[in-house]
Design goal:
Layout: H1 2-32, H2 40-47, H3 61-70, H4 82-93, E1 103-107, H5 127-131, H6 150-154, E2 160-162, E3 168-170, H7 180-184, E4 190-194, E5 200-201, H8 209-215, H9 225-229, E6 235-238, E7 241-244, H10 254-258, E8 264-265, H11 270-311
Antiparallel strand pairs: 1-4, 2-3, 5-8, 6-7
Helix pairs in contact: 2-3, 2-4
């Protein structure tokens, strides 16, 4: 009996000693292999929304926090947290938060029900899946929105919904510019634009005018009338489709009135179109009258000069 007790005691002592030894080994190892965390990391993480959306260009909020600490990302890199998060992070980092204008997503297509179809697609309601069927999807337009709502499903902020014409609509108040929707669009039709800008070319078709008009009633035909009308050099035809330079655009909306295909939004009303045509007619008449007056003055001047020579 006494031997059994001693064996138990010895076993407990051995286990205790082994536990102590392994504990010491683990303590030493933890010091040797310790990964030091910057004390600013948890503070910055508290400022970030935890959406892990990837809108900042990093895999998640923790990656973004590390990038900010390393100086690889700006303190305002998080589109979801916005200005409020940027200000707090800037205070932690001891820098100033630059005041950049908010951006939102925008779908550069207004085809939808106006776009012609090659066939009626019956299958998985997913845009990428649709592009795999019978030659790049059911639309005649190879550049148009397929309208199956993959971007709507990708948005974690409920900022996108399908519009009545079958094209996604962005809710500017809810959009955080995380661009998850853009990543989900197989035709790359979603871009980031400054929230203050209100004028948009709603077409991405790079075909020439006649070919583009053939596949969609709302297509830009690259006529260049918008370019001629813009007083700020803010719109140009690139690869047969109009493109706006938002660094120059003043939201004057003259291009929307000049567009014969209503491919630039906000689409001008009938009344606005009529006023624009009347203005252009008046300008043309004024220019013609000025040219006529100049020609008549030149003729009179030439006649006076000839008369003077004859008198001499």
């Amino acid at each position: 009996m006494e031997l059994d007790v001693m064996n138990i005691v010895y076993a407990i002592l051995v286990l205790g000693i082994l536990g102590l030894v392994f504990g010491l080994i683990l303590a030493v190892a933890s010091k040797i292999f310790e990964v030091k965390t910057d004390p600013r990391f948890p503070l910055i993480m508290d400022c970030l929304p935890g959406a892990n959306c990837g809108g900042c260009g990093y895999a998640g909020c923790s990656s973004a926090a590390n990038a900010i600490i390393a100086g690889k990302a700006a303190v305002n890199c998080c589109p979801v947290g916005g200005a409020a998060a940027a200000e707090k992070i800037a205070a932690i980092m001891g820098v100033e938060a630059s005041a950049e204008e908010k951006h939102i997503a925008h779908v550069i297509c207004n085809g939808g029900t106006a776009a012609k179809k090659k066939y009626e697609y019956i299958g998985v309601k997913d845009c990428l899946a649709a592009t795999k069927v019978a030659g790049n999807g059911p639309l005649e337009c190879a550049y148009g929105c397929l309208g199956f709502g993959s971007c709507v499903q990708a948005c974690t902020f409920e900022a996108i919904s399908m519009g009545p014409n079958g094209v996604p609509v962005i809710d500017a108040d809810k959009c955080t510019d995380c661009m998850q929707c853009a990543a989900a669009c197989p035709r790359h039709l979603i871009v980031s634009v400054p929230v203050s800008k209100k004028v948009f070319v709603e077409c991405a078709n790079k075909q020439k005018g006649a070919a583009a008009a053939k596949v969609c009633a709302n297509a830009c035909i690259g006529c260049g009338l918008c370019v001629k009308e813009c007083k700020f050099d803010a719109i140009h035809v690139v690869d047969n489709v109009a493109v706006i330079d938002y660094a120059k655009c003043k939201n004057c909306k003259l291009c929307t009135k000049a567009c014969p295909k209503d491919a630039i939004s906000p689409i001008a009303t009938k009344e606005e179109k009529e006023k624009f045509k009347a203005m252009k007619k008046a300008q043309a008449e004024k220019k013609a009258a000025a040219a006529k007056a100049a020609a008549e003055a030149k003729t009179k001047e030439a006649a006076a000069s000839a008369e003077t020579k004859d008198n001499d």
